[in-house]
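We were asked to recover a plausible sequence for a given structure. The inputs and outputs are reproduced exactly as logged, with field labels preserved.

PROBLEM: sequence recovery
POSITIONS: 361
GIVEN STRUCTURE:
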């Protein structure tokens, strides 16, 4: 049966490649600076059902592993070794040794460690991929404990060589910055605001921006934060102070505030916007969906476009994706994109960046 399934996806992949082999500009995207679109081509695919990876909601590339997170059921972490095709699974939720109720993956500067955090307790854990590859199994270890203030509430964290940066319901700003190996913490930077958001207190602003994704360059001195149609570029000094360098605010969210139930509800007529975020030394990449829930339902949360900026916040290039993607990760010029349209599949695409790439837009 698996051979029939694989044959079906091979045929589907070939059809998609035939339909998307042209790299010529094809259409126009209504975002400032992205005047034209180019195509990307699917090079390969991984049918995750064949690996018993059945419910992934997140994918991350680390040291020739693809790491998947599930948000339902056991909410397991699964690591697929691309060299051996062996899958290793970790169950971290429950009342075991760490009493973890929830976790989020973290962007990390460590190439051979996959990191995730218990946001409630401020505990950061790591899985050593070298140990996993050599021994065939390993455990996850406590990397550090953040000195959370009483009643603080974080949604997710990002790790850089010198700092852990978090977002949440923070009184003092959009970001909480922890200096590693020191009891030093700062809350800083303002949220992007329009007339509606300006009236909100910090709790509602934090809830509204809970979808924020973060990424940094390798040395951690440049950082980008994105959600909805809002992309903000920051620099980080050696002392941990953040400076806003550039804002690209394409569209703000449409929402309602509530006093019971969820604090924020989003309009079904609003574009979903940024769906995923990656960065390297030269560029920032984001999945973008211009769909609305009203028109597309759950399919609105699959992106149709890949947008690229340089670290000055200038648009470089936009791509029309050959398949809609739920989230993505990158290794150099290679994109691993997770699709959840029917059964979960990872599509492999190549960017082919050139030295004069920025001059071609």
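RECOVERED SEQUENCE:
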């Amino acid at each position: 049966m698996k051979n029939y399934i694989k044959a079906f996806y091979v045929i589907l992949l070939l059809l998609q490649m035939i339909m998307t082999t042209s790299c010529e500009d094809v259409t126009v995207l209504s975002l400032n600076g992205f005047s034209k679109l180019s195509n990307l081509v699917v090079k390969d695919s991984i049918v995750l059902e064949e690996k018993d990876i059945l419910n992934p909601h997140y994918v991350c590339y680390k040291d020739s592993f693809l790491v998947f997170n599930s948000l339902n059921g056991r909410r397991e972490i699964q690591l697929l070794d691309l060299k051996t095709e062996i899958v290793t699974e970790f169950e971290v939720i429950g009342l075991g040794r760490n009493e973890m109720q929830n976790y989020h993956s973290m962007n990390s500067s460590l190439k051979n460690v996959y990191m995730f955090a218990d946001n409630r307790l401020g505990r950061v854990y790591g899985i050593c991929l070298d140990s996993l590859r050599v021994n065939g199994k390993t455990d996850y270890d406590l990397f550090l404990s953040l000195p959370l203030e009483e009643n603080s509430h974080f949604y997710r964290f990002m790790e850089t060589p010198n700092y852990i940066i978090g977002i949440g319901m923070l009184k003092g700003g959009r970001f909480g910055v922890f200096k590693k190996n020191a009891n030093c913490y700062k809350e800083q930077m303002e949220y992007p605001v329009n007339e509606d958001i300006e009236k909100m207190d910090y709790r509602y602003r934090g809830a509204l921006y809970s979808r924020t994704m973060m990424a940094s360059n390798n040395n951690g001195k440049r950082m980008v934060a994105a959600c909805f149609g809002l992309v903000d570029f920051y620099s980080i000094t050696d002392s941990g102070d953040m400076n806003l360098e550039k804002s690209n605010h394409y569209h703000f969210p449409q929402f309602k505030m509530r006093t019971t139930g969820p604090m924020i509800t989003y309009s079904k007529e609003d574009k979903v916007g940024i769906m995923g975020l990656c960065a390297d030394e030269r560029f920032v990449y984001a999945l973008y969906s211009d769909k609305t829930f009203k028109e597309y339902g759950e399919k609105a949360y699959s992106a149709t476009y890949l947008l690229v900026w340089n670290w000055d916040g200038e648009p470089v290039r936009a791509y029309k994706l050959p398949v809609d993607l739920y989230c993505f990760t990158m290794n150099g010029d290679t994109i691993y994109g997770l699709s959840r349209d029917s059964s979960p599949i990872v599509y492999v695409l190549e960017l082919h960046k050139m030295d004069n790439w920025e001059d071609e837009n």
